[in-house]
Every structure is written in C-alpha cells, then in structure tokens.
Write a structure and sequence with these properties.
Layout (H helix, E strand, L loop, with lengths): L7 H8 L7 H5 L6 E6 L7 H13 L9 E6 L7 H10 L4 E5 L2 H10 L5 E5 L19 E5 L2 H15 L5 E6 L6 H14 L3 E6 L3 H13 L5 E3 L3 H5 L1 H10 L4 E3 L2 H5 L4 E5 L1 H16 L15 E6 H7 L5 H6 L2 E3 L1
Parallel strand pairs: 1-2, 1-3, 3-4, 4-5, 6-7, 6-8, 8-9, 9-10, 11-12
Antiparallel strand pairs: 10-11
Helix pairs in contact: 3-12, 4-5, 6-7, 8-10
C-alpha cells in the first residue's frame, strides 16, 4: 500500500523553520487539513488529473504543501485493492476523500465511510447507482461529477465510421468488470444498429485477454476499434496502443491523454473541466460547505483529438471534415 509523504526537509521548509520555535508556539499552530486521493489508476497516469484538481483547489485558496496536504492511495488497475486503500484513508482521518477512475474507487470510499465527505468522479448516473438522492441535492456525505459515458459511445462510433467508412465490421473493447460496461455497450450497440453498422463487442480484463481479444477481432475482419473507458485500460494505454498498431487497427479512445500518447483518435469529456471541479468542490468542503448541498455536475466540454502522426503510420487518410471538427490535431 503506497501513500505519498513529504520528505523531512520539505516539511521543515514548508513550516518555515517552525522546528526552532518554542514548544508552546508550535502547539498553537493549526493542523493542516488533509485530502485523501483514492484512484484506481497510478501516479504516472494521473498527472493531468491531479494538475486539474490542484488548479481547482487553488481557486478556493488551497495549495498542496502550503495549507493543505494530500495522501494518495493507488489501485494501479487492480480493483480488488480499492477497499483496503479507502479504509486506510479513513483511518488516517482525512478531512475529505476525492475519488478518481470511476465507480470502483467511489464504491470503495462509500463503503468505508458515511461521515467523511466524498467528492467522487463517476462514469454513470449516480442516482441510479444509489450514490445520491438527486443530482441537484445529493444529500448525505457524497457529491462530485459524472461523465455519463454511455452517451459518448455513440459519438465515438460516429467519428470512427467517418474515419474508416469502408469498415463494415468494427470491434468494441470493453472491460466487463466495470459497472458501466453494460449500459455503455447497450447504448453503443443501439447506435450501431441505427446506422447499419456491425459491431462486435469483446471483453478483456487482463493483458493476455486483450491480446487474445484483438487477435480474434482481426480474424473476424474488424476494420476499426472502439476502446471503451476503463482504469485498467488507461494504466495499460501504451501497451494497447502498441498492440493496436501491430494489428494496423484504426482506433478511437475516450481520453485525450491516450491520443497524445500515440492513440489515433479520442473523444470524451474534458479532464481539465471535470477534475478541476472536483478540486473546487474539495476546497469548498474544506471551507465549510456540505456535500449534500453541492449538486452533482455533468460535463459541458468534450474534446475530440486526432493524432495525425499515428494516422500516417497506419496509412489512414483523415478527412478535412474530421480535421475541422477536432479540438486538437497532433502533428
């Protein structure tokens, strides 16, 4: 179980030489509030998420290491670890817990405490999942954001069809262990049927299964691939990108960070927007706001990113229309 700690010299620097103060003066210094950060992913993958959270915190007057501390719990794509990590943060008596990487982290935090405020990042409808009473007035100790992934699948499919119109068969890679897998699959399949697109849905929860699944899709003559949201897939993004490239499959992903890392295309909610709001909410709670009064927020900004360098490597021609629709084109 790994939790980040400040080094001794950093602590001394942050205290501004407090070690030299009289004992009575040190005792009068207020304790720095601590935020627990519980992620299904890893420190490497969550750099942009944490940058957005820190920006949000700064809007409410908090700077990590200056007047707030953060304790980290990393699942690294292993969902079975989440409950123990959540319980460890509760034992540390953090002031608020922020969850990242979808429902596995949020469910673990919810099971671990009904008292500590939770700011969760979800992929599905939090009312349907039983997290909150309503979007406008959550009630209880939980608030946060939801990206509503189901609606994004249809859009991703449409972009992939425009990129590879000749692909009569497309594959859809799903992590079946994710709570949103069923609804995302259902909505995307419905969108595919509406336009006459044959879509083969295949599940994978390990690298070995990803290998076998992609090989099977290629054997079934899938001409393109939709990789759906999964913390496990995100922690293995480089591996998936390389494997997809070896199979010469044009693919669309759900986060811009994957396109930036070499994926062909991505379409999804803005990391900066959603996680920035998570930071704002965490800061508001530290300032006295109650989670019950902070409405669950939905994304207002979606990002479409094309990696032209990857397209050239795959021999895929990106239409002028797609390029004009893109929020960012990586050369």
């Amino acid at each position: 179980m790994q939790f980040a700690r400040l080094k001794r010299r950093e602590v001394i620097a942050l205290l501004g030489g407090a070690a030299a103060w009289p004992l009575g003066a040190r005792a009068q210094q207020p304790a720095m509030p601590v935020i627990g950060y519980l992620s299904t992913r890893s420190p490497e993958t969550d750099v942009p998420m944490l940058a957005a959270i820190r920006r949000g915190l700064s809007e409410t007057g908090y700077v990590e290491g200056k007047n707030v501390a953060i304790e980290y719990g990393w699942g690294r794509g292993q969902y079975g670890r989440m409950q123990a990590l959540a319980e460890e943060l509760v034992r540390r008596q953090v002031a608020v817990i922020v969850t990242a990487g979808g429902e596995p982290a949020a469910l673990a935090a919810k099971a671990a405490t009904a008292k500590i405020p939770l700011v969760v990042n979800l992929a599905e409808d939090p009312v349907r999942l039983g997290f909150v009473a309503s979007l406008n007035r959550p009630g209880g100790n939980i608030t946060g954001v939801t990206s509503l992934l189901g609606a994004q699948g249809a859009k991703q499919l449409g972009l992939l069809r425009e990129l590879v119109p000749q692909a009569s068969i497309m594959g859809m890679l799903v992590d079946p262990s994710m709570p949103w897998a069923e609804s995302l699959t259902t909505e995307t399949q419905s969108a595919a049927r509406a336009v006459g697109q044959r879509l083969i849905v295949a599940g994978a929860s390990s690298e070995r299964e990803i290998d076998a699944t992609l090989a099977a899709l290629v054997q079934q003559r899938a001409g393109a691939l939709l990789v759906t949201a999964s913390p496990f897939f995100f922690t293995r993004a480089d591996y998936i990108i390389g494997l997809v490239a070896r199979h010469a499959l044009p693919a669309v992903y759900w986060r811009r960070e994957i396109a930036e890392a070499g994926g062909l295309m991505s379409y999804g909610s803005s990391t900066a927007e959603l996680y920035g709001q998570v930071g704002v909410y965490a800061g508001k709670i530290l300032n006295g706001a109650k989670p019950a009064d902070l409405p669950i927020l939905q994304p207002t900004k979606f990002e479409f990113v094309i990696n032209v360098k990857t397209a050239k490597a795959l021999g895929v021609k990106v239409s002028d229309n797609l390029l004009s629709l893109a929020d960012d084109v990586i050369e």
